[in-house]
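haha ok so turns out i had the wrong file open the whole time. this is the CORRECT one, sorry everyone. sequence first:
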Amino acid sequence: MQEYFFSVIIPVYNTANFLEECIKSVLIQRLKNIQIILINDCSTDDSKKICEKYKNKFNLHLINHKKKLGVANSPK
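then structure:
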């Protein structure tokens, strides 16, 4: 099991226009042991497709919500 130094959480909601640039900016960092988590909150544009592409290519973590929950969803 790999241990991570820190995690980068990227909230995603209809961000297809700049999502790839955002992900690439994290991937080019010189730091090692970075965990990247993409949280897609029911995007209606191509954001999900972009998330899947980078998840498969770079082994990123992807969370796809089934219904819109918002960035800071917390249990009641």
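The chain has one domain: 6-64.
again sry for the mixup
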